[in-house]
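Progress against Task 2.4 (sequence-to-structure conversion) is shown through the following example record, which the project officer requested during the mid-term review.
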Amino acid sequence: MSSDNTYILGHTATEMVRLTEQDRLITMGMDGLLPELPDLAGIKRVLDVACGPGGWALDLAQKYQHLQVLGIDVDGGMIDYATAQAKAGGLDNATFRVMNALEPLDFPDNTFDLVNARFLAGFVPQNRWSQVIMELRRILRPGGIIRWTEQEWTGTSSSFEQAEAYTFQAMRRAGQLLAADERNVGITPLMRRFLSDAGFRNVREVAHALDFSAGTGVQRAYAQDLWMATVLLQPFHLALGVATQQELDDLQQRVQEESLADDFYAVWFLLTDLGTKP
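Structure tokens generated for the chain above:
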């Protein structure tokens, strides 16, 4: 299987730490691991796509020990870490495998009851969405559910806006931007269409607004995630020629200062689409 990796953030120890903390923040902000599915009747096998260090999958396996949870990621280091965490926690119902979600998945048809996928826009090229969603449909059993979450950010600081601008410009040049302009990623308005085009039924959407403005109590935690992402995106920005190293270093410093300021206001919007395979 190909190991091609188009993930826009670097796969490093720092990214592993960031994603582990981010999983905790997202679960808290979304009111739980599966807030849209209070009844798990009929769900036994769960796949977490692009699982990173396994935070969501491990927490799910811990809370619902009757589930068999499998996480896949293209990065072997992430999978090694997640596997070690499962072993340390005695979670026999959580396993992890190296697998590239941009390639045919090494599972038979109709294998899973639930497929969880989050932030695929970080690595799926513009012209590969149909293929990726159809492959996730293939491995779901009839009646199985896809749970797909993507994101958009908005904030009041100039550094926040500049960081986004660099990322959207780089994604455009890399063929990963879906928006007509470079003001956002453009994935959230298309999610329902992608699922419907792939044949999913009963598609519904659930939105969450994670406020990490000054005075919310979570400002520092989210600001740290934002700052680390800014650092990890530097190689992507440099490779696509959207900024110089000096510009990125200056931006990194400004993001750290402004995101912790008393007049900082920002919201992280998450949209989750759920669909059923007929």
